[in-house]
DNA sequence: GTGAAAGCGCTAACAG
DNA sequence: CTGTTAGCGCTTTCAC
């Protein structure tokens, strides 16, 4: 643990000035071969590494970018980080990330700390508008992901409305008439998903029942399952806030003797890799998580490169329906039987 | 984007010296209420935030710790990061992580960059010994995770030998006689797992067939499946390097008309959360991923706090068998039929 | 080509 | 209690 060599040590050993060493290291300037060789030798000998902190302090560049996500345990975010990481690396940047653990208070603090150590950040968050302003006030390039951003701030997201509408169409086409949505209100895309789904169903003259989960997690999908199933008018299709909820839901449903998809169709959102391996395989909508991360990072780099944020604007990724086995057409008989359940709607609220 | 306020601006505005402001900010010292109020006012007014880089340069502390992992898409690492993150946060530290993406070359570089920005790091890696020395040469506290570390360097891991032995015992007890291991040689725990399994089987006079995957991934489990199944002497139980491989294997097996566990028992390692939801639910060994991250971070903090690395030593977590549905007892008839397959062993080798 | 000198924003003695 | 004075390790004019 002896002291780290500094640029001064190198300069002394090579018999040149520290300025020369600095320029050599940053390849800001060429020198006579002899000098360069001596410097390189000194560097190797001392195993010198420049101190990025000192450099950053002067240049104002850190060589790192940050990503703040809600929960690294959610494969959607994992994929996003992977995508972002790849692009960051390609640009010669390091990726630092913070997992805010869905914790509003912590988020503010973490983001503040992070923002001072990076050249820009990608924020995937539920924070209210005011807090977003505070982030912008940090003066770093920011890209918001998965949510609408204030005017003039670049953002990226998946068309949640379209995703939900797609799901609605599928379910209706398959003959489902009694559809439930397991929503998670605090999340930004929830409203759009809800809107897409209900508008689609409305267009077909169908109602939508909403249940609430307290988190986008497997555990919450498990928790809410029984109340959905034991409802007087059991839904014949359940749209889950995301794949995690869907997985939890299906797990408990199975253990309760409900057969999916023959009793109830289930669909998730995100298309996490494990959706292929649940039983039955999960029908879902691909939100292109990895691509989301990649593109968010590209947007960020354009900003870092000096492009005007308002010129970058908002980027919207198209969702894609992924049909698997957790949804199935309803036999006609069942459709008609359930149709009655729709009637109460006339009774008004 | 106008210039950031510095401590000097605050001092000027508050009418005190910059040293006073510095001490106030770090609560190194108390001042007269009047002064403190003025300073605070100036800070608020200017929206001043201290620059952690400048601070770090002097104190030599960054307030961050780093974790280097192989692949964030693997839930085992995700959980580990989560555990590590929690403990780091409790200690008032930020967690920075790098995903080395199983890339040997990149790892070196990333680690170098990371190490200069943190007060210590946790390394989960396959790097050869020499490279580990290079990391140690960085002069930062390090904890190695999931692998043996050089003498005197703290490390943490799960008892891979015991884990494998446990699996062996289970399988033998269930009457399996023809057991295969899908190994991943480049990974550190692989050898111990292989040893635990083969020693257990040997004790029962049973052979072990080894197959090789090229990565600890679902895709590799899928790829290797057919060659395992189409083998002349089809195994009646398959032990997979980890749950990811097991999931991939089961997926393809199912599509090939193989029924699990009645045709083949499958067991994984790690106990990732999704193992409960595969079909059938995956029998596995819990490697306590989250706890691994937590304890690794605790070990790291003990080092950062100045404890002598050799005094910290190696920590070994105990694996736990998690019985689910992908393993089943073999009917006696099957056992005897397969027993013949064991015979060739006598032929030597 | 090369080097001297002036800081980046902040902390840490040491005075007063 | 408060201020003065050195730097941390490095980059960056600007001379030589």
Keywords:
disordered C terminus, 6-stranded parallel beta sheet, 12 strands, 349 residues, alpha/beta, DNA-binding, homodimer
Explain what you see.
The structure is a homodimer of 349-residue chains. Chain A is built from 14 helices and 12 strands. With 349 residues, chain A is an alpha/beta fold. In chain A, the strands form 3 sheets. A 6-stranded parallel beta sheet of chain A has the order 2-1-3-4-5-11, with helices on both faces. Chain A has a 4-stranded parallel beta sheet with strand order 7-6-8-9, sandwiched between helices. In chain A, strands 10-12 form a two-stranded antiparallel ribbon. Chain A has helices spanning 7-14, 18-25, 33-46, 52-59, 75-90, 104-115, 129-137, 160-173, 188-203, 218-229, 243-255, 289-304, 309-312, 332-342; strands at residues 64-69, 94-99, 121-123, 142-145, 155-158, 179-183, 208-212, 237-240, 265-267, 284-286, 314-317, 320-322. The N and C termini of chain A lie far apart (74 Å). In chain A, helix 1 (7-14) crosses helix 3 (33-46), helix 5 packs parallel to helix 12 (289-304) and helix 8 (160-173) packs parallel to helix 9. The longest helix of chain A is centred in the N-terminal third of the chain and has 16 residues, at 75-90. Chain A is elongated and about 85 Å long. Residues 337-349 of chain A have low confidence and may be disordered. Chain A binds a DNA duplex (16 and 16 nucleotides) through helix 2 and helix 4.
């Amino acid at each position: 643990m002896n002291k780290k060599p500094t640029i001064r040590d190198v300069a002394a050993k090579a018999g040149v000035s520290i300025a020369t060493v600095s320029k050599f290291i940053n390849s800001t300037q060429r020198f006579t071969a002899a000098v360069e060789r001596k410097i390189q030798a000194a560097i190797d000998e001392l195993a010198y590494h420049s101190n990025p902190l000192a450099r950053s302090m002067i240049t104002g560049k850190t060589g790192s970018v940050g990503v703040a996500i809600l929960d690294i345990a959610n494969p959607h975010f994992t994929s996003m980080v992977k995508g972002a990481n790849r692009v960051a690396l390609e640009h010669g940047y390091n990726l630092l990330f913070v997992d805010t653990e869905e914790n509003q208070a912590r988020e503010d603090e973490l983001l503040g700390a992070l923002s001072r150590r990076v050249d820009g950040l990608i924020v995937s968050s539920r924070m209210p508008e005011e807090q977003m302003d505070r982030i912008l006030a940090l003066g770093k390039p920011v890209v918001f992901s998965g949510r609408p951003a204030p005017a003039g701030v670049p953002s990226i997201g998946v068309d949640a409305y379209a995703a939900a509408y797609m799901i609605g169409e599928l379910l209706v086409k398959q003959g489902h008439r009694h559809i439930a949505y397991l929503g998670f209100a605090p999340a930004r895309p929830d409203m759009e998903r809800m809107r897409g789904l209900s508008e689609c169903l409305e267009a077909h003259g169908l109602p939508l029942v909403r249940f609430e989960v307290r988190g986008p997690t497997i555990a919450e999908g498990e928790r809410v399952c029984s109340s959905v199933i034991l409802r007087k008018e059991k839904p014949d299709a359940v749209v889950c806030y995301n794949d995690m909820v869907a997985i939890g839901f299906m797990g408990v449903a199975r253990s309760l003797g409900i057969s999916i998809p023959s009793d109830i169709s289930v669909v998730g959102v995100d298309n996490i890799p494990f959706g292929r391996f649940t039983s039955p395989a999960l029908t879902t909508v691909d939100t292109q998580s990895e691509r989301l991360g990649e593109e968010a990072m590209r947007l960020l780099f354009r900003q870092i490169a000096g492009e005007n944020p308002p010129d970058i604007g908002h980027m919207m990724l198209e969702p894609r329906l992924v049909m698997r086995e957790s949804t199935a057409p309803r036999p006609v008989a069942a459709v008609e039987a359930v149709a009655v359940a729709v009637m109460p709607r006339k009774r008004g609220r």
